Known about the structure:
The structure holds two protein chains of two kinds.
Chain A: E1 14-17, H1 20-30, E2 39-41, H2 45-50, E3 57-64, E4 68-77
Chain B: H1 20-26, E1 77-86, H2 91-100, H3 112-128, H4 133-144, E2 159-163, E3 167-172, E4 175-178, H5 181-189, H6 193-198, E5 212-218, E6 227-228, E7 234-235, H7 238-258, H8 263-281, H9 302-306, H10 312-317, E8 325-332, E9 340-344, H11 345-348, E10 352-356, H12 362-371, E11 379-383, E12 389-391, H13 398-404, E13 410-414, E14 420-424, E15 434-442, E16 447-449, H14 454-457, E17 465-469, H15 474-484, E18 491-492, E19 497-498, H16 505-514, E20 519-520, H17 522-531, E21 550-551, H18 552-557, E22 566-569, E23 589-593, E24 596-599, H19 604-607, H20 615-623, H21 625-646, H22 659-685, H23 696-722, H24 728-735, H25 741-748, E25 752-753, E26 755-756, E27 759-760, E28 785-786, H26 796-831, E29 835-836, E30 842-843, E31 849-851, H27 872-880
Parallel strand pairs in B: 8-16, 9-15
Antiparallel strand pairs in B: 1-5, 2-3, 3-4, 6-7, 8-17, 9-16, 10-13, 11-12, 11-13, 14-15, 14-17, 18-19, 20-21, 22-23, 23-24, 25-28, 26-27, 29-30, 30-31
Helix pairs in contact in B: 2-4, 3-4, 7-8, 12-13, 16-21, 20-21, 22-23, 23-25
The complex binds magnesium ion and zinc ion (3 copies).
Amino acid sequence: xVKFDILKHELVPKFTILSKEEVEALRxxxxxxxxHLPWIRKSDPICKVLGxxxxxxxxxxxxxxxxxxxxxxxxxxxx
Amino acid sequence: MSVNDxxxxxxxxxxxxxxxxxxxxxxVVNIITADTYDxxxxxxxxxxxxxxxxxIEPGQxxxxxxxxxxxxxxxxxxxxxxxxxxxxxxxKTVYLTLRAICWNCGRILLKKEDYDKYVLLxxxxxxxxxxxxxxxxxxxxxxxxxxxxxPYCGREQFKIKFEKPTTYYEEHPEGNVxxxxxEIRARLERITDADAALLGLDPQMARPEWMVLTVxxxxxxxxxxxxxxxxxxxxxxxxxxxxxxxxxINERLKENIxxxxxxxxxxxxxxxLQYHVTTYFDNETSGIPPARHRSGRPxxxxxxxxxxxxxxxxxxxxxxxxxxxxxxxxxxxxxxSMNEVGVPIEVAKLLTIPERINKFNIEEMKKLIENxxxxxxxxxxxxxxxxxxxxxxxPKDRKTIADSVEIGYVVERHIKDGDVVLxxxxxxxxxxxxxxxxxxxxxxxxxxxxxxxxxxxxxxxxGDEMNxxxxxxxxxxxxxxxxxxxxxxxxxxRYGGPIMGxxxxxISGAYMLTKxxxxxxxxxxxxxxxxAGYDGELPPPAIxxxxxxxxxxxxxxxxxxxxxxxxLKANICQKCGQCKKEECPHDAFVxxxxxxxxxxxxxxxxxxxxxxxxxxxxxxxxxxxDMGRMFIDKAFKLxxxxxxxxxxxxxxxxxxxxxxxxxxxxxxxxxxxxxxxKLIEIYNEGLLERLPGRTLEETLETKIMQELEEAREKxxxxxxxxxxxxxxxxxxxxxxxxxxxxxxxxxVACVGQQSVRGERINRGYQNRTLPHFKPGDLGARAHGFVxxxxxxxxxxxxxxxxAMGGREGLVDTAVRTSxxxxxxxxxxxxxxxxxxxxxxxxxxxxxxIIQFKYGEDGVDPAKSDxxxxxxxxxxxxxxxxAGVI
Lengths: 79, 885
Ligand SMILES: [Mg+2]
Ligand SMILES: [Zn+2]
Ligand SMILES: [Zn+2]
Ligand SMILES: [Zn+2]
């Protein structure tokens, strides 16, 4: 079976794993702990493709109908 | 008692299971007798009403703590069960746990390496994702249930079957073996503390074997008070009844065991005990019959006391009752401001506001005190600085009291004109369901409200009642005024547009007044403007000869700001191919230049409630809510005064069509009937072509439906062509005031196809809808097509079909409201505590982020243009001044 590359699908937004420094900067801007971000499970297809591990933070860049470009973050948890 | 007096504050709450030792420790008496009172009405010792359990009779002292009724908190007792029973609330957990452990040694059925891995993982979860621990435990239990042989003692494992509510079997090769609760408890006891932690239990707070009860706590008598009826007969609480059952069976079981009765009898009694304990916890447990009272009524046991709308949570804990509120029927008053609410004098005399006396209001307050509780602007109480309350109902000489008050006293005075109150109509589905109004004390017994606030409250006057609340503090009043005042809610966050605006007669009136033919004499014009509260100069007349005349457009223009520009198409626009704009024959092209209505009529599109991008929307958005309120209060009165002076009515004779039109309609319908017959013929011959994805029968149905719907539409078109332009129903439909062209067509032309479940009517007898038709008749008439119009009257068969369709509509609305009500409840429960923070993020109460920017764009829809932050077209129009549509 040919493996389907979900990253190329037009409905899948751009995901990136943040570096330690970026995560720290993010925590500072919002004044939060990582747990306060919305969660995503390690078993999520996008985490599998990116190889994200529990404790990582993902950045999502979407094209939004209302805002043009919108940015969100996810905290990777086990499961 | 104030916040500062609280001796202890709660930092955290921890839930666990009661151990048998704990139950015994907190118990003050071991209950062994099923009886409650002896012949003299004295509680029996060691019975369910033992005096050590607390006192419920006034004047009696508690045998345990020595307190009297209000003071004694009540004390638990306990029952020693002759045999253990499964706690029904944990039956599922018991099952999952049993599956995961060895029946012999009690270890979790995991290979050594798996076990070590999970121990480490569980420790990691505990530190980093404590919320996810139960998920891991679930995974471990699932994994452990797979192993066939214990890695520790090597014994073969058997599959465990769980039968709701509390029965467990072990599947042995030679057949199923029932597991007795005592056996289950023994297995659970063998689980080590470390293993219990892996199974998601905290062994300090909840040892697994505690899920099987050996001791049952007996709640204090104050939890299940007995009541004495007038006849002197004592009646016990449902919980007591249930406990009596448990004790009886428990005693019998004990006796039988002691007497060495056969195993079978003991097992029967044991199961009975389990049944009683199960229903004692939850009498709606599925799979077993509910325990009933002697009268046949199911008992209301523990779970029933907590669950549902009438349960402890929704009824007693979330359900708040308040003072300073009133409720009565509502009725309309077009003469008061939209910001006001008419309050009956009788209500005003009961609702009060505490006002502190100072040097500015002391004279007024003295007057109010003198008036007392029975004369309207009066007062009901005085609170002295030492906290003493003086009731003004009793003293005869209020004058002396009035003279004795000083600065610093507080007067609980009646509400009066101008006070701020909250007004509410249930169901409170959105924030506009509770708005702040200013009081207007009026005679008679109903709350009065301006008609423009009907849409946000979804109110009408067919008997609707509403609630009124009086804020008691200065802060509450200020907040209500700034955030909740009606005019601040004109623009709805539901969609970027005004939710309040013209409805019904306001729209008809606006149309009639702004029509080209509306010309007014000096007297008429003056009269209208006075009723609208206009106090400026009359503009120069539009027509000077032979008599001075003013147009309605001129009068309306007086209420626009002088720099107001707007262009739009009115509701009456006929969508003619090439729009002639200002030259529109229907005067449907609305142009406002520099605050003057140059062309076009005002109707639903420009001033209606719930119309985004309307004149009203622009006025409120660009000139503020004061302007919006002013326009609605003043200009709208103009419309009503005008419709009052002209009258708008519909009569039976108006809905009459000329012979010619009736003939045309008859022909259209006849044609459709023939076409239908033709379709049926083709179908019978087997020549009908199947539509994709449909059966032949469905194809026929669809085609017939299409044909008939077309016929009804055509009939309606003919009707509206022949109706006079002066027809009031037509006016209302076109302007959007009330009703539609379809309603009109139903009245004058043809009611058309009736349907049930989106299909022609197909039910009733075998192969026919009614015995009046031949079996298998597929014709229009036989399947609910109503040829008549309402005016022509329906024949009995048509009437019957019409009732069938009508009933479906009623049932639908009834079902929908209950469904959407439940959905609303769940949504509110989920969303009630999230909020938009100052940094634009949406967060829950623990600071966790729900959205990184509210709605992704951070736009408040109430302050937006139909959802957009800016409306470029309107800005250009404003700057350039030309109509860009
Ligand atoms: Mg009603
Ligand atoms: Zn007591
Ligand atoms: Zn074992
Ligand atoms: Zn037009």
